[in-house]
Write a structure and sequence with these properties.
Shape of chain A: globular
Helix content of chain A: over 70%
Largest sheet of chain A: none
CATH architecture of the largest domain in chain A: Up-down Bundle
Radius of gyration of chain A: 22 Å
Structural class of chain A: mainly alpha
Oligomer: heterodimer
CATH superfamily of the largest domain in chain A: Cytochrome c oxidase-like, subunit I domain
Strand content of chain B: under 5%
Number of helices of chain A: 16
CATH class of the largest domain in chain A: Mainly Alpha
Order of helices and strands of chain A: HHHHHHHHHHHHHHHH
Number of strands of chain B: 0
CATH topology of the largest domain in chain A: Cytochrome C Oxidase, Chain A
Chain lengths: 461, 64
Amino acid sequence: MNPEQVSQRQQLDEASSVPVLLYFATAVFWLLVGTLLGVAASLKFDLPNWLGSIPELTFGRIRPAHLNVVVYGWASLAGAGCLAWLTSRLCLAPLQLRGCLVASVVLWNLGLIYGTGSLLLGYSLGVEWLEFPLPAAALIGAAFLLFAASITATFRKRTVEHLYVSLWYVMASIVWFPLLYVTANLPIYSGVTHAAVNWWYGHNALGVWFTPTGLALAYYFIPKVIGRPVYSYYLSLLGFWAFALFYNWNGIHHLVGGPLPTWLQTISIIASVMMGIPVMAVAVNHHLTTVGHFSLLRTSPTLRFTVFGAMSYTAVSVQGSIEALRSMQERVHFTHYTIGHAHLGVYAFLTMILFGAMYYITPRVARWNWPHPRLIKAHFWLSATGILLYVAATCLGGWLQGGAMNDPKTPFVDVVALTRPYLTTRTVSGILLGGGHLIFAYLFVRVLTRSGPRRVEGGEE
Amino acid sequence: MNVPPAVLVLLAVAACGAALALAAFVWAVRNGQLDNSNAGALVIFDDEEPVGTPTDQLFEQRKP
């Protein structure tokens, strides 16, 4: 390597190094905590008495703890790290306000410790996705604002004329998510309004934070790894604006059949179906960009994870549009089917793309390569088979469960017995996912401690 | 009609979010961000990593 020939891209990557690696390292920690909580919660369906005498480890506490840890810990921290790096690259400007990002990581983690501790000790607000008590939510909100400040400052220093499609997704999420998070956490709601705010928030956390994160990364990495521009750039921009128009109406479809005005539910169902437009724009575009280059899936870990995630995005969105219909809700509401849908979104789509992005970003900011490419393959196959098994088991089990619960002649205990094999399968798939996560954490620590191969710039891996 | 204050807060926030999106869209059109859009797809490539060159070929070294 010739130090005088350090490219601008390398300089930008190195400037983002400290905050990005801090986000990643803490994200990996929360991924392991979240996996442990998830597997434990799942195991309790097989062994109802296991850990049942310890109040802190009862199902009612570890399940919300699992959700909040994987959502605000793993996915949000990893997403923030990836987006910070991506913004710097797309603006061709070094990451600004890096001190703010370090402070953001600290506050974010303090919020997570406070919030998760509160949930396990029994101090939950009892509103799904918004269980964290106010001080924890305030810490996380402040951390997100610091993150948004750094992204905005970097954006203002941009040296590019054109804003790449990924940048639209990033900027939309840092404007809308803080607005959403702060509004939803205000202690001013009650009754039906509270339920509406709950799911307006719950679905938009996906809509204006996690989905833009996943799509921004997919729109960058698929063309970048293949070395071929997006098939129809025009379609990608159309997709963004259609996404911006429709997604935020979707939340109330979680309350179909509930005590809300019917027009409100109907609007939400219509918007959920209209999501077909941006989803197809993304699906067609990613497919036509990749077509003819599928052989690269064999050689690039990032492409493998990202294409798996992008395909899952299409699957989860089509499933979601259908699931919002009243006739489907009659059967699958309050069943394990919903859990399958949630994991298809947050794991098969978002988490797989985050893995892909982290496999690309980490060696470039740490300037150290991944050891053991074979272990990366093992991680991919454990995660891929684990999540496919998970979604298949919960969706099928939930579908049968819904049918049985709608039959007044079937005793409830028979419905419970019916779901058992599917729930055991879910625990097994959770253990597979956990194995993949342990491999990922091990590889990540090896890069951080620089005990793998040194990265040689220029000579591509 | 009796509208709870919380609903007014929500309406204000929704109007604010929608206004920001509309402002961004008007800016994008006036700024020419939506013109000649296929050129925009090329901004992620440069001389060192040009179109036609795959990156991240981590598993390739395993081949004979």
